[in-house]
User: Fold this.
Amino acid sequence: MPQPTQSGEVRRETGLAPPQDATARWRDAWRLVSGYCRSPDWKFAWFALITLLFFQFGTAFILLRTNQWQRQFFDAIEQRDQAQLVPLMIVFLAIMAMQVAMILTENLIDGLLSIRWRTYLTRDYLDRWMRRNRYAEIERLRIIDNPDQRIADDLNNITAAVGMSVGVLHIALRLLGSIVSGVTFAMILLETAPPIEFSLGGNAFSIPGSTVWYAVAYALIGSYLTAKIGQPFVRAMMRQQHREADFRSGLIHVRRNAAQIGLAGAVATERQAMERSFDAARLNFRSVIYSSLGLTGASSIYDRMGTVLPLFIMVPTYFAGGMSFGQLMAGRDAFAQLGMQLGYFVKSYQLIGQQVSYFNRIKGLDDALDEAGPVGIAVGAGTAPGIVLTTQGLALRRPHGEPMVTIGDWSVRTGERWALRGPSGAGKSTLVRALAGLWPDGHGSVALANDRRVMFVPQRLYLPLGTLKAAVCFPDRPEEHDDGVVQALLRRVRLGNLTDQIHAVRLWQEELSPGEQQRIALARILLHRPDVLVLDEATSALDADNTRNFYDSVAGEIPGATIISVIHDETLLKHHTHSLTIVDGQAQAAAIEQPTGHG
Ligand SMILES: Nc1ncnc2c1ncn2[C@@H]1O[C@H](COP(=O)(O)OP(=O)(O)OP(=O)(O)O)[C@@H](O)[C@H]1O
Assistant:
């Protein structure tokens, strides 16, 4: 039995207080990152990763050379050795050239890796989102908010290259690079730093490399405090993404329903709703600003202190003649570098926080994609000869589990034309969806003949973006059909005025009237000539003359077709041989007597 479904809003809030345990989220994040290395593009993935990894060592080497250069440079100044200046300048230019070349190559590879990784992930998520109609199920049950934005934006943010925004791989590489450089600078400091000497319980202790330990302690304390200060920021960022997504989808909704809103005189109401939605994003953005101030402050103090603190630690040794001026300045540089490298966490906390929220949203999408609810209605292919459709013990339920309609055992024979009737909200369209395998809630089974071409035509036809010809030919590609055939069909359905526009790319779904769209549906039916036609109020927007033309055309052009059609208009009964009427949640089948012999 399907579980009660929470409303979208409740789910969104639970999304903010992540219900999954940390291990599951880490596993999912790792799958997201490592999947690409096993994808068909694995050769490039590994090449790029290894090169970028190699560059982290290259960066450490350059920082080391720069540190040595500083030492030589300040020693030369202390000794007033002018002869050293030109060779030192040449060395500096060489180091800089190497550094720039490395940065450019790194950015190039990073950019390529970013777009290829994103391509792989986007395709993977599109496949999973659209597979077995999962995307419709997510919308039907409102399982998560804005899956489209998760695929378009969150995946982009996770895979982003340097320069655009900072993606997760970049952060990971920088963290690794920081460790490599950190170790390098710790070694420099160990060489020059005096030991920490103290006595405890009458024994004298000496710990070598005092500055290293001060720098490590400095980085650890800084990181811990930043993590504490940063927690509200991460939560505020997550909320911000939800609210921005809601605001955007609200705007899209208004845009799509512009005419209806205008006709209902509801422009002001919708305007206020947009304002409220934007206010939610705006007010939360204050929390983002305030919480980020704390982080920015912590990071600035950390940087400033890092350049001065080592001087106070080492100057006594310099005054005592224990180190040269060059050693002092190189020591300060090494301390600042070590603090900076170890404290990369401090610097990148905001970025890491953002990434965590992107990953959480993708994890929500993953759960929605993977955790398909129980399918109560079995859909199979294959029926007895001469039978097009059978249902056995079929009962439809609402997503929350309440009963909707009981169909029971029902068979449709080849060539029969069934009218589905019943009051509004009885479950007629839901039955059509169940026949298409798109309604899992309920029990029993549905089977369609597997050797027949079945076509479902809803009340509101889907017209793809593109040409009018593509709209008629859908789901075939327009190139598969002759222009002349499509033009003849348009004339047949009384849309002859559009024959010279079949190649025009327009928003046909918005432009054509509902009745014109239903005539496009007829053209599509006549083009595809299905064996079984399931119509859901497919003529509801047509006048009497066009409705007659619709049914007469189908009967005349595809005489053997089996038809199941949801109707409200009793006058349409004459086009049918049988009826399935829903009364008080029960379906009753009957043959229709045709006094005039029609049908
Ligand atoms: N995605 C959904 N989530 C929850 N309830 C739904 C969903 N889709 C349909 N329902 C409910 O199922 C019931 C039957 O809807 P359905 O569209 O099948 O009725 P109908 O008989 O075709 O009505 P009408 O004649 O007005 O088109 C309605 O009460 C509707 O609210």
Remarks:
- The CA atoms of residues 262 and 268 lie 10 Å apart.
